[in-house]
Every structure is written in structure tokens, then in C-alpha cells.
Write a structure and sequence with these properties.
Four copies of one chain form a homotetramer.
Chain A (H helix, E strand, L loop, with lengths): L3 E7 L6 H11 L3 E7 L4 H10 L11 H9 L7 E5 L5 H10 L4 E3 L7 H14 L3 E3 L7 H11 L6 E9 L12 H4 L4 H4 L4 H17 L3 E9 L10 E8 L4 E7 L8 E8 L2 E6 L5 E6 L4 E5 L7 H5 L11 H21 L13 H19 L5 E2 L1
Parallel strand pairs in A: 1-2, 1-3, 3-4, 4-5, 6-9
Antiparallel strand pairs in A: 6-10, 7-8, 7-14, 8-9, 10-11, 11-12, 12-13
Helix pairs in contact in A: 1-11, 4-5, 5-12, 6-9, 9-12
């Protein structure tokens, strides 16, 4: 198994997302960091890239240099990860896709649905991979939920309850803290704050698990701290094309909630309940039956869950390993692409540009609905 | 301490609510069942009353007979509990209040807000007590939450998240089960099913804890099983007069949820989280601090919580004891009424006719909002 | 259903155990307090008895007066509860049993195994009931565990893990607090402190659930705070006559543990896990299967559990209700005794003098083993 | 930061422990796999090593070849990991240490205490690093417990309660399964089965957290399934040199327990409780105070915990990341060794040969005690 050749844009020294990608890409040894433009400060970015083992000639000062330097090479990068500030995703993703690179873009894929449509179109035309990093979908038991729905264990999905609530923007004294303030400023953050930033992970997870897409959205946005312009708390109702109704709560003022990403799925024949803080257990209640605790690592789970799990039952596996599953999927698909073979169908569950597009549509619809008193808005 | 004289209407043999009231009223020895009209079948009701220790001449065939027989007695009933079918509450409560009795009525107090307003008016005019049985508000740690809010521990309450979700009406095969069907039939149940039946407890708890009343409601109702006319799942946003926003989810199709009555309260200075299934623990997170587990029975809790707690810390206390706190409060107030003294201020937290009225208004507003696509409706 | 006539010795104003018995005896309306000697102070005891509704002529100054006054009456007490200080249990229980009364004695039944043997012998000779209050055995899910073992669901029980650990005697500054000190003084407490006081409940529960008796005990006792003479922490290994091994930990210095009464039962075909702090859930794992959550109130549980449960599934039921099951059992048996009928076999699970005797034997054996370096001591 | 040069013995294709080491060593990019002898089958081992990126000339057929090939190189391996069957650890570790290599050996370090003493002596003489993989000690909150004890937050540690109980060897039908059987065969497993295999992790954790060593041990071993010769369940009491008492339960027949590694620490001034299955939360109860939930990732924790934590608060981190902390510590120490500088004192908490020695002594003492009816055996 030769390592795939990997490039990275953004995620320099001191960033949180940079090490997360490097841990995940390297965890199984699938990817080797071969080229990088890591920092807004060219010199610092180059030197950090070299420190990470990138050869000097492939350590770039910015993404344009990297595109120029890499596009003509015969030992082409197999994948380029984009982990720059949100507002730059569109241009960078578009440029690399158009130059024939496969891309994994941090979420949000773009700042607008229109831009996201463009990215989807390019990816479709070129046949290149454009993945979007909804990393929580790599958790084995999230994939178990999806597999159980697909397998019909729940019957028709009637209802989903999704949450992503935390309390880290609840301090009024923090209102002018620049690390917090920009998130609630429409000029920098767009039409939505906490839904676009946090709640969208719950949205993606609900769509992913039910394998359904939204058709209509009704939302209530609230700004509960200081004089924030964008919402720091939202309740969103979503009607989906397979008939499911999803109720999604997201908040940044829920003091005491650490990382409240949870999903409950209720169908005709049973219900599921999962929470990110204890990701190795999944509760499953068959209709009129007793609740069972499904443990990650249990060999009788779905093949999707088994494939996504690395360590023995009873051990905590955690997010870095879950996130590595996205890279694992991409490695399988990229190798198949290189070999002209068909990838393992189980590798096709990584989040894609279309998921990024649905997210942008949902954000825009929710903001529109919230702005008009909660009217249902079609997508 | 002489026992107070207590009468009961409804709650005959085989009912669930009857024993609950008798356990709670008798738990501390405050009340002695002296008169009763327990059953729709007069003979059965009389014989069961005698079996419960009521003397033959005060065992009645129906509530009208009981009213006639009791109103002229010198050894008057101190309290009359009404536990008959919902549609009869209004007439019975009104009649007994007008005849000068103190009343504890099962919820809902009436079938409409207009009727509830009438009951409130009579209670105010006569000075009689009219309590409504939101029994979950008797839990010591629910009272602790209210005390902490009142004490300013949370600062201004910004947000509440309330839930009452269960999965016991999720079976399509049960749709024609008469014990389930009537709940979703507007002719029998009124304008709302699961919100009026289950969610209203979460609504009352939120109002009680924050000590605020609703001003505007926006709701989404869904009927997810069979061809039900009334909702079996609802999401309700509530704006309150003290500035709090409450988001309330209620469901009868949440398979796997047993009794999902929970309340989270988020303020400027901290957050609280409580769940009815494990009522003896309350989570409290001061802003920027660590989450603490408050245990029922801890002597350093508020005097409200200490007063409402009977057994040592570390033991499960449970609903019957919580419910007995309502009777305990009423006993204190009734004794003060008899003595012409001032009751213990801590005894005044029992749910009242005005709480019943707010519930009816909220149900009507939510149904109206849900019927018009989620528009905000004022109360 | 006429109420049974009930007498009470000890449990006066200000005691914790007194109200617990009165709540439990009265909860279902089975017993009526007809005679009492409640207090070491005769006048205070009489006046409190009258306040509780006892007629003046049956409010006694001490237990001897009560025995004299009650033994000749035609309207005889059906049951006498003994809730006096431990060292008096033997004499009072013996006297009332010999005079033909049925007795429910607080634990410990006596201060020595020899005395307990005497009580057992008298009860057998007279045919009177002598119950001992291991009240935790009244929890519906404890009875469910026993029923599952009896039903063979676990196969042969191999191992039990029992705990009763709390941290309320951990404060060195409390060492001279008289409410704590006497417990660790052999002159007042006998041969054991925390095992006799707390751990013995876990011991009884293990015996009760497995339906086995101890044959050999090996123990390690530790005194970890100040210069206590008796143990405040103990580990006890118990071999039982049905082949089960029980490992029991008890502690009074486990800071942070509120009321750590737990039981795990491991058999050939599955395992059970229950904890008193959340008594309404029981975990059951069939061998090679998934852990299931059994909920109190589930109608598919054993008839023992269904009979012991009063309120709907999903509600917390708590200790006072569990404890009332002991009184409920006794009421069934006493009524059958009076009628000359056969009692409901399900009512025969209340803890008996023989359970009290096994406890005393276990305490003495454990103390002996601990005193000789952990040698196995036969019972 | 150049990568350190790393060699691996054992852990070939299909092993569980191999990928665990490679994930952990590679997670932060500290180590580069440069040489390997991965398999009992030389050809398979070589080819797998090449697949993992090792150059052909450093892919060896067995450990002796690797020792010969590597010992003379100028680009010497910085660390050699030994992940072969237990009975080979001693010889391989000794040989590599004597040849001047730094070693990380899987536990157990040897099969006897005497051998372990030899390893410790060599490591001391040579000044080489000999680490032993008690990987659970890498969890941030385990290090937090140790830091809190060291900081005096608990005062004197009185008592520890340690457990490692699972139920994966409970199936009688599995008794002849070769993957299970050898563990209970003294010829292959030595003097102890479940204590040596599983419980020893709990033992190490208790010693590590309290920073104390055992002085006396009393143990009860039980063989509960089939005709096993070695114990599948054990209770062990340990007296430690700092005055703490540790009670340790370990089991392989606890059906329903997945991975019951837990530690509770009780001191004069407070208590701690942690469980491996949910490693990101630690309960801390100050004496007479309320229990607090400490979250991994909280910046106010000890510097040891902060250093050991990689991802944001509220996310599950899991074992692979914890395990990587051992490699991270070693990387720091190895770099300091190479530079002649002083390593970060926080990096010195990795488990060492002396820890391996204490484990072997404890296993031998426990087996001896269990064999003589639980007598206390000095170490």
C-alpha cells in the first residue's frame, strides 16, 4: 500500500483544524503530506511545512503558488485539503477542481448556495472528487444508524430530533472578544451564525442518517446575548423528501452543554438515540420492545459500522478516529480512481459537495424563514 | 395535628389517578378521606368508598349528590379533589367553588380558556382555593430550580428548553385502540392532543421555574401516525413576559423515550438541567465554571427544596412523594385559612387556577399558530 | 378492605425512621396506627401518638406499658413495628412475639447471632410473623432480579458484586461528633460498624436475589479515619450454598458516593446490574447478546415486579414506595392469617427473622475473619 | 521537528496491537517507521513492513536479524517497540537494551518478577529508556487525577477502588476455544490469568495516580467457568507505602461489562471517580462539597492534563489519542537525550520498567496469597 500524495492549504501552526486533519489523514498511513501552503504569512507557512516533512520546493507561500507549482507535475497530488477561512473556500475549491485536483474542503463549502451549486457543477463535469468535511459522520455508530435506516429496521422514518447546543458564547463580557464577535457579524459570517457554524453538523447528520433531503424549512432565530446581529440560538423544523420531519435545536448560549451534538431517529418500527459526547454507545428501541445498548466494536453491527471501527469493543474511540474514516473512504475511492477499478461501495458515504450545497440551501432557507416570522420556505 | 377532611370525586376502582391522589394525600397524614363520589357507576362507587373507610352516609353515587349532601354539614370538607374525565372538570369545579368548597382539580382545569377564566374569577371572588394538579412541580429539585432563578443565581433567564416526549402512541396497529384513539379526536380531546396532554406539564414547569408567563407562541403540530386529526408531535416556541424564550418539544411517537419530561434553563450567569426520570439530581453550571451535581436531600439547597424533601440524601424519592408536596402545601394553606393565620410563604408554590388558565391559553394559541403555518400568536 | 390494626414502638418526633414507617404503612391504606409507644420521653411520646390519631388510652409511655395494655385486648394489634435503638430490639421483639404478636423489627434484629437464633426459634414455635426491615428488597426491580434468577434466565449464578459505599463519615473533623462516633465504638455498635450498618443491606440483597445463603466468609476491615476502633471500610468475600461467590464492598469514607447500594449478578447465561440511586432501570445482558434496559412499570416483567410497582412506566417511584411493598406483603399475609386462607405466594418475599439471623452470622464471621488476617470462616 | 527513527518487533498483519502502536506513534508525526520485524513468518513480515513504507534492507525476518542489522548503523533507531507474544518480551528487551537501544515493551515486561528485576537493572546501568505500555495511563484525566493527588487536593489518599472487569470469557462453550483457553493454562500464561491480563492495568493506574507502591497483598482468586486452572475472577486488597489501601476487582466473567476499567480515589479532602468507557469526564467531590464534572479539554485543569489533550472540550478523544501520549512523552525524552538537554518534566510520566517490575511482583504476591487462603503477602 503506497501512501497517497496529499496537499494542504491552511491549517498552519496554532490552528485547531490543521492538526486534526494531519492526525486523521496520517492515522492509517493512507496519506503523505507532500505539498502545502499552510499560512497567511508565506515565510511562516513554508517553514512549518518543511518542519512537517514537506520538501522545500513544495512548501508554498500561498494557494495560488501551490496551484501553479503543482498542476504541471507528473507526481500529482491525489488530494488537496482546504482548511482556510470560510470566505476563501469557494475560490480555492473551484480553482483546484478546475485544474483537475480532487478536493476535501472544510465546511462550509462556500458562503452562498449559488456558489455551492457552481462547485457541484464543476465536480460533476470534471468527475473530480469534491468532499466536504462533516467529520462527525465518520463515527461508526452514526454509520450504524444510517445502515439500520437503509436496512428498514425502523420502517419509515417519521421524526428526527437533532441538536447541537453549546454554551461557549454565553458570556456577555465576551461580546467584544474578536474571536467571538465576528461570528455574529453578517459582514463576516453571512446570513447565519450558530446554525451555520454548529447546527449544520446536526442537519447534515440527520440528512445522512435518514438518506433524505430537505424540502421545506421553518425557523426561529434568536439573538440572546448583547446586541448580536446574527442568531446565537435557533429552532428549525425541516420537512424532508422521504416524509421525515426533523426538529433541530442549535445554541451557543446553553451554559453547561459542552458539545451537545445528538440525534434521535423515530420510525414506524423503532427509535434510535445517539450523542457525540459518548459516541461508542447507541440506544435502539424496537417498537414495543426494550431499549438495547449497541456498542461500537460489536461484530454483529452493520458492515458499515464494523468497517469504520478500529479498536476493540469497550474502548473509547473518539473523534480523531471517526474523522480518519473520512480520509479512509477518500483513500479507497482515490485508489480506485487511479486503478480504474470500482471502489468499495462502503467507501462512498463520505460527505460530498452536494451535502455542502444542501447545507447552504438550508442555511439560506432558515434565515429567510426566521426573517419572516417562521413561514415555511421551500428549498 | 388533626387530619383535614377530604372529599374525592372520580378516581374509582381501576383508575390510575385515584390511587395516586390517595397515596399523596395520605402520605404525610394530612388528609382523611371523609366523603367520596368515586365512580360513574353509583353502586360501585359507594361500595368502593366504604371499602376505603368512608362512612356509608358520605359515600355518594355522583358529584351532585355529594354537593347536596356535603354543603350543609357543619363538619365541612376542607378540600375536594376532582379526578373525573376532563370534560366534566369545569362544571364540577365551578359548582363546588360556588358552594364555598376549596378544590384541587386534575388538569386540565377546563376544556377552554374561556371556562378557565370563569373558574379563576370565581376563585378570586370567593377567596376559595382552586388548585390544579401539575404534580411534577412538587419535585424538590424543580423547586430548587425555581428558587435559584428567584435568587438571581442564573441572572436573567434567556432561554429554556423543555421536553415531554414519549413513544407510547407510536404503534400504527394501536390507531384504533379506543384507549388511544379518543386522544386524537377533536370531538373528545379539543384542539390539541399531545401538547394538551403531555407537553403542558413541561410548559407549566417552565413558567413555574422562571416565574414568567407567555406572551406569544409559534407552534408546529404534526400528525405522524395513521390518519390522526390532532397532533402527536409538536414543537412550540414561547416568548415570555420576563424576556425568556422557551423552546418546547412534545411527542407521543418518540419510541424509546419513556417519560421524557426534562427542563433546561439558561441564564446570563449559569445553566440548569433536570430530568424527571432521575429527579434526585440537578446539574448546575455556573458561567465559565464547572458543572456541579446537586443532590436532593442536600441540606445546603434552598429552603424550598429542603422543605419538599422527606428522605435522606442518596435515596430515590420519586413521584408519589413529589406529588404529596402539593397536598402538603394545601394542608398548610388550609390550616392557616381555618386558623385565620398567615400560611408559610413556602407553601404558596402549589399550582393554581391561574396556572390552569395559562395552560388553556397556551394550548389555544399553539393550535391557532400551528393552523396558520407557525405565525406568532399573542396570548 | 378494612385496615389492619398497627402498633409502633419508637420512631417518635424528630426520628428519621418513624415517618418512613408511617408513610410506608399508610401508603396503600393497609394499616391504621392504633397503639404506640413512640419516645424515650413518655409524655412526649404519648402526646405525639395522639397527634398522629392514636386514641389516648392506647398512647403509651414505653413498650412494657404497651405490651401490658395491648396483650389482653380483643381488638388486637395485627402488627407491631419496632423502631427503637438497636440494642433494645432483641428484648422487645422477643417479648411481643412471646405474647402472640406479629412483629416487624428494624434491622438489625438483634446484637448477636445467638440472640437472633432465639428470635427465629420463638417465631417458629409460635407461628407468629417476625419480619425484619431490609426495605431495599421491596424495589420492584430487585424483585425482578430475584424472579429472573429463579426462572433460570441467568443459569447458575457464578458471581455477585455488591456494594454499599457512601462518604458521610469521611470528615476527620467529625470524628468526635456524637452522631458519628458511637457507630465506631464497639461498646455501642458491637463487632462491626459500616458492614453491620450499611453493607448488610447489600448482603441481604445478594442472598435475596440469588436465593442462596452464605457458607464461608473472608473479610478485610479497615479503619481509615482518626482512631476509630471499628471498620469504616470493608471488603468481604462470601461463598454461598448454591455455588455463587459474592464480593461485597462497603465504605463510609467514599467521598462523592451518595448512596452506593448496587448489585451485579453474573450467571452462566447473562448478567444483571442495578443501582439504588436510579432504581427504575435494570440492565440485563444475555450471554453473547446486547445489554437491554428493563424499565420498572413494563408490563412484560415478572409478576413479582409487576405486583410491586404502583405507578406508570417512566416515572421515578423511589424508596418510600419500595418500602411500602414490605407492608403490602405483610398485609396480605396477615389477612390470610386472620382468614385462615393461604396468602398470595408473591407476598412471601418480605424479609424474615431468618434473614436477620443470616445477617448477624455474616457480621460475626466477617469480623472474625478480619481479625485473623482474612482467613475463611465458616458460618 | 524531524521525525524520530522507529523500529517495531511484532504487531504484523492481522494483529490488534500492531495498528494501535502505529496509529499512536504516527498520530503526532513524532516517529517514522524505519525498521521492522513484524511477523513470525519472515516473508510475510518483510513484505508487510515494505508495504508500511520500510525500506527493503530494514525489513527483517526476525528480531535477531533486526538486532544484527541495526546495531551497527550510524542512523540508529531512536526507539524499538516490542509487541511480540508475552513469553518473548524478556529476551528481546534485554538484547536490545544491552545493544544500546531504547525500548518500549508491551506489557507484561517479562514472565517473572526476577526477569523484570534484571531488565530494570540493565536499564539503570545503561541509562537507556525502557518503557512499558500501560497505555491507559496516557488518558488526560488519568493524569489529572495524578496531578490532583500530587497537588494535595485530596489530602492523604486513604482508599482506592480499582476495577477491570469484562465478560468476554464467560461462555462455557468457549472454554476450548484456543484464543481463550491458553490464557487460563499456567504453562502458557504463568501464575495468573485475568489479574495479569486485565486487572494489572487497574493496578498500574492506582499506583500511578497515588504515586505509591504496594507493600502487602491479600487476594482471592476464583475459577468460575469450566475447569480452568487459572483465575477468571479475583479480588485483591493492596496496602501501599504511602498509607493508601487499594481494593481491586478484576473479572472475565462479568457478562454485560464491556471494559470495566474504573478508578475511584478517596482522600481526606475529597474523592475522584473515573471510568475508561467515558474517559472525557472525571467526577471530583471535595469533602462536604458538591460533585463537579471535570471535562477533558478544560483549560483550567492541571498542566499535565492540558498537555495530554489534543482536541477541543466536549469532543470524545478516546484511547488511540491517549495511547499516543505515551509516544509523545517518549519523543520528548528521546529528543532531550539526543540533544543532551533536560526533558520537559511533564514528559516523565510514561510507564517504565520499574512499573513493569511492580506489576510482576504484585502478580506473584497475589497468586501466592490466593494460594494460601488470602494471607497477606509482603512484596
Amino acid at each position: 500500500m503506497t501512501r497517497l500524495s496529499w496537499g494542504m492549504i491552511g491549517g498552519g501552526e496554532g490552528s485547531q483544524i490543521g492538526p486534526a486533519h494531519r492526525i486523521s489523514a496520517g492515522l492509517d498511513g493512507h496519506f503523505n503530506l507532500a505539498a502545502a501552503a499552510l499560512d497567511i504569512d508565506p515565510a511562516r507557512g513554508k517553514s512549518f511545512a518543511v518542519e512537517l516533512g514537506v520538501s522545500g520546493d513544495r512548501a508554498y507561500g500561498n494557494w495560488q503558488e501551490m496551484l501553479d507549482g503543482e498542476k504541471g507535475r507528473s507526481d500529482r497530488l491525489d488530494l488537496v485539503t482546504i482548511a482556510t477561512p470560510n470566505s476563501t473556500h469557494y475560490e480555492i475549491a473551484r480553482s483546484f477542481l478546475e485544474a483537475g485536483f480532487n478536493v476535501l474542503c472544510e465546511k462550509p463549502i462556500t458562503m452562498t448556495a449559488k456558489e455551492a451549486e457552481h462547485i457541484v457543477a464543476i465536480a460533476e463535469e470534471t468527475g473530480q472528487i469534491c468532499a466536504v468535511n462533516y467529520g462527525y459522520s465518520g463515527y461508526p455508530l452514526v454509520r450504524q444508524m444510517r445502515a439500520m435506516v437503509a436496512n428498514g429496521d425502523l420502517g419509515k422514518v417519521r421524526l428526527m430530533k437533532a441538536e447541537f447546543a453549546h454554551g461557549f458564547h454565553a458570556d456577555e463580557a465576551d461580546a467584544d472578544n474578536p474571536r467571538v464577535r465576528w461570528r455574529y457579524d453578517p459582514a463576516q459570517a453571512g446570513t447565519s451564525a450558530v446554525f451555520a457554524d454548529a447546527g449544520i453538523h446536526a442537519f447534515h447528520m440527520a440528512c445522512f442518517v435518514a438518506d433524505q433531503s430537505p424540502t421545506e424549512i421553518s425557523a426561529d432565530f434568536a439573538s440572546l446575548v448583547g446586541n448580536r446581529q446574527l442568531e446565537d440560538d435557533a429552532m428549525i423544523n425541516i420537512r424532508m423528501d422521504g416524509g421525515a420531519l426533523c426538529r433541530l435545536w442549535t445554541s451557543a448560549v446553553a451554559v453547561g452543554r459542552m458539545h451537545g451534538l445528538t440525534l434521535q431517529v423515530f420510525g414506524e418500527n423503532g427509535g434510535l438515540s445517539w450523542q457525540q459526547q459518548h459516541p461508542d454507545q447507541l440506544l435502539w428501541t424496537p417498537l414495543n420492545g426494550r431499549t438495547q445498548i449497541l456498542e461500537r466494536g460489536d461484530g454483529t453491527l452493520s458492515e458499515q459500522a464494523v468497517r469504520a471501527s478500529r479498536i476493540a469493543i469497550g474502548h473509547a474511540e473518539g473523534l480523531p478516529v471517526a474523522f480518519a474514516n473520512i480520509y479512509h473512504d477518500l483513500a479507497d475511492v482515490l485508489r480506485a480512481q487511479k486503478n480504474g477499478s470500482t471502489p468499495d461501495p462502503l467507501a462512498l458515504d463520505y460527505p460530498k459537495a452536494t451535502d455542502g450545497l444542501w447545507s447552504m440551501k438550508a442555511i439560506e432557507a432558515a434565515a429567510k424563514s426566521a426573517g419572516s416570522g417562521g413561514t415555511w420556505v421551500g428549498l
